[in-house]
Amino acid sequence: MAAISIPSHMKAWTYSEYGKSKEVLKFNQSVALPEVKEDQVLIKVAAASLNPIDHKRMEGYFKNSGSPLPTAPGYDVAGVVVKVGSEVKKFKVGDVVYGDINVKALEYPKVIGSLAEYTAAEERLLAHKPQNLSFAEAASLPLTLETAYEGLERTGFSAGKSILVLGGAGGVGTHVIQLAKHVYGASKVAATASTRKLELLRNLGADWPIDYTKENFEDLSEKFDVVYDTVGQTEQAFKVLKEGGKVVTIVPPGFHPAILFILSTDGAILEKLNPYFESGKLKPILDPKSPFPFSQTVEAFAHLETNRATGKIVVYPIP
């Protein structure tokens, strides 16, 4: 393959102080490209997706373990490898990849995230993009898909078990429903959402969509083997848990004895699940307003911050 021309500077969205995205996020036309370490690849970004952690970092919730400012936000990426470090074995220049570029979401994330023309990531965090998915679809997956999977693994979820998903139409919830039903073989999947999103839950594989605007899940007579909380209702979750069942949550501070965890990113999870996307058993769920063009990243954050998005918000194409 012919050598790819890589510039020394690029366009990126960055913030130099903490605050609301509409006030601090700026379009920067001359940002130095990140250094590529021995175990990393440099990616020409085609698409990125937004996660709540992005705007919470921007608002200063995690200053003590944040990346130094100015920083470009963004965890999820899909794009093309344009440079490889000396120790990289899995990828070569020209490979099409996707992944969450930060090893741990809250521990010193990268200064140059995925809302930039180029970003660097360790090869172990990345996977080859499923052939049947667009860049935008692939970019929507990594952080939320891996979070959904790890939470199910931590509960010991397996075929024949029942699960209630709190927040079934969100980024993580849409994956939990699909994984539980189509990968693990759940006996029953129940999930909560607002009225207009119930049909989506059914389409994802939920046997029992629950309209949280009309009924409280904690009043249900049925009990579940697992409750997966994506919205911060951990204490109530125990009211519908079978004896010996488990509650898992991704919303701090949690509620003992629920399993609270923060994702440790692993590209091997994506590689393992790729065949399910290529066969159509699993599907990416993009918010109806997606994709937002790169120039409208501030508008994309505004939509994310309403907490009303369905699935994932994607920025595509990135120049």
Automatic annotation (TrEMBL):
Q: Which residues form the Enoyl reductase (ER) domain?
A: 20-315
What the entry lists under PROSITE patterns is as follows: QOR_ZETA_CRYSTAL
Instruction: Report which superkingdom the organism of origin falls in.
Output: Eukaryota
Kindly indicate whether the keyword Oxidoreductase belongs to this entry.
yes
Q: Which CDD domains match?
A: MDR_like_2
Q: Does the keyword Heme apply?
A: no
Gene3D superfamilies hit by this protein = Medium-chain alcohol dehydrogenases, catalytic domain, NAD(P)-binding Rossmann-like Domain
A Pfam family matched by this chain, by name? ADH_zinc_N_2
Gene Ontology MF terms: oxidoreductase activity, acting on the CH-CH group of donors, NAD or NADP as acceptor; zinc ion binding
Keywords, sorted A to Z: NAD, Oxidoreductase
Assigned protein family: Belongs to the zinc-containing alcohol dehydrogenase family. Quinone oxidoreductase subfamily.
Protein known as? Enoyl reductase (ER) domain-containing protein
- Please name the source species: Glycine max
List the lineage, top down: Eukaryota, Viridiplantae, Streptophyta, Embryophyta, Tracheophyta
